[in-house]
Amino acid sequence: AMDGIYDYTDQPPHFFYIHFLVLLSALYLPLFAIDTACSSGWGNECYLGLDVLNGLIVFLQCIFIVGLWSLGTKMIDPYGDDYEDLSVILYVESRLE
After folding, report:
1. Which stretch of DSSP H or E encloses residue 30?
2. Model-level pTM greater than 0.70?
3. CA distances from 91 to 8, 15, 36, 95 (A)
4. Greatest alpha-carbon span in the chain
5. pLDDT 10s digit of each residue in the chain, 97 long?
6. Which residues lie below 8 Å from residue 76, measured CB to CB, with a gap of 6+?
7. Cα dihedral angle (90, 92, 95, 97), rounded to 10 degrees?
8. How open is the CA angle 42-44-50, to the nearest 5 degrees?
9. C-alpha 89: how far from chain center
10. What is the pLDDT of residue 56?
11. Residue 9 CA to chain centroid, in angstroms?
């Protein structure tokens, strides 16, 4: 049972998670921005309030994707490189002995 811990230590985020964020950043965000800009209206159909609202929605979507990206980088190394961090593997090995 305890040897199963070694299966979950020092693993990077899932392959799908990183590639999904790359897909969102490279394809979805620009296409969403273009679609939102086109749906806001052309020529005489322009409304300043709708333009500001759509711009805010695009901005919030970008912040959401960047937040997911930074979450993924924190998942890669959750304990960091600090000197005061405990070594989980050494703690488990000492308890097993």
Report:
1. helix 29-40
2. no
3. 15, 29, 52, 6
4. 77
5. 555 655 555 555 567 777 888 888 889 889 999 998 888 877 787 788 888 898 999 999 989 888 888 877 777 666 666 655 566 667 777 787 7
6. 12, 13
7. -70
8. 65
9. 27
10. 94
11. 21
- Nearest to 20, CA basis, from 74, 72, 61, 62: 72
Nearest to 26 by CA among 67, 71, 76, 62: 62
CB 50 within 8 A of CB 40: yes
Residue pair 85/79 in contact (Cβ under 8 Å)? The answer is yes
Give the Cα separation of 50 and 39 in Å (integer). Answer: 10
- Rounded Cα distance between 45 and 6, Å, is 61
pLDDT in the model for residue 57: 92
For CA atoms 59, 64, 70, 72, give the dihedral sign: negative
- Report pLDDT for 92: 75
